[in-house]
TrEMBL record:
One of its GO terms (biological process) is SOS response. It comes from Desulfosarcina alkanivorans. SUPFAM superfamilies: DNA/RNA polymerases (SSF56672). Transmembrane segments: none annotated. PROSITE patterns: UMUC. Belongs to the DNA polymerase type-Y family. This is DNA polymerase IV. Residues 20-202 form the UmuC domain. Pfam families: IMS, IMS_C. GO terms for molecular function: damaged DNA binding; DNA-directed DNA polymerase activity.
Amino acid sequence: MTRNADIEFFTKPSAMERSIIHINVADFAVAVEQVLDRRLVGRPVIIAPQGAARAAVVDMSETAFQAGVRKHMPLNRALRRCRDARVLPPRPDRYGQAMARMLDAALPCSPLIEPGDGDGHLFVDVTGSSRLLGPPVDVAWRLGRRIRRDLGLAPIWSLATSKLIAKTATRLVKPLGEYIVEPGDEAAFLAPLPLFLVPGIERADLDRFNDFNITRVFQANGLTADQMQILLGHGGDVVRDRLHGIDPSPVRPVDQPTPRVVGCREFGDDTNHRPQVEGSLYRLVEQAGRQLRCQSLAARRIGLVLEYTDGVRRVRQTRAKPATANDFSLFTHARRLLILAWTRRVRLRCMTLVCDRLTYPPAQRLLFASERDIAEKQDRLVAAMDRIRRRFGTGALAMGRTLAA
């Protein structure tokens, strides 16, 4: 028996005009290290695991960024570009403590606070709090000052009517600054911006726009709904909404579980037949991928739970870098987890796939041309398969590996 992958959908926002603050500490890991060691201030700093054969950059200071260092770049290449950089190992515990203190600073402002994944980001919804706390812009200013005073960090902040506009605004003033987008100015604010600055525009969509020499938001907004649909397929309506500044997704309460996609396969007859298990896993991946793409989201973490006939459970998870909603990429991660978790000869009773830490799909293109070409082909293939299945049904196309399932 198969249960379809299900997503905890965003709740419908209030009809009241919203006031959402976005707090962003640029280069968060480096900023925390600089607070703890003032000798690092002003120096090029790279956060990366040391001693690993394929170490990659986790974060870097603005000085290192100006020298050409980028996230996920191989460490040896980054050091060739910035030879005097100080390399520090990642310390997740430190960054987690700093995020917790940022959350504590924001709690007096609102119960609706959505933190990022240990990356120095906070969304704070202060809608309707003016009588108690004062104008939203004053709340944002006081919150930024409190974080600077209590933690020694220098946050960027923005104020807007949606998470999408607020996040875009902080990107414009990075690494230091503040930005206020007045209600009703969302479309005008976005119009002159490059497309890659708008959260939620996938890499494949950017490439498609580039094919037609469309690089700015106002150029894309010149397309009709039908033209956008022809150009981008099923994602055209979602992209069109984002380019007009439409984003109804709410700021979740602090104690609310984050949305995730969950798919479960219960085997009618317990099995250890590898083609059947891998075929079932791919079906779960396809279901999860469709759910993510329909919501214009991508998963940053994939987990797999195996339940054996004798009641033993095995849980494995991995991070997806970059976040993905592509079936092929999701299956690569899921299959690796299956190999790690499936270590016993006992038959399997149930298999559960979990995709969480959902975010907007990354717009940044992959660094290496060979990887970029493969990813773009896979994205186009998945988009074409989605169009066929929407028109002719989900059974119109099937991957060969799913037949054994």
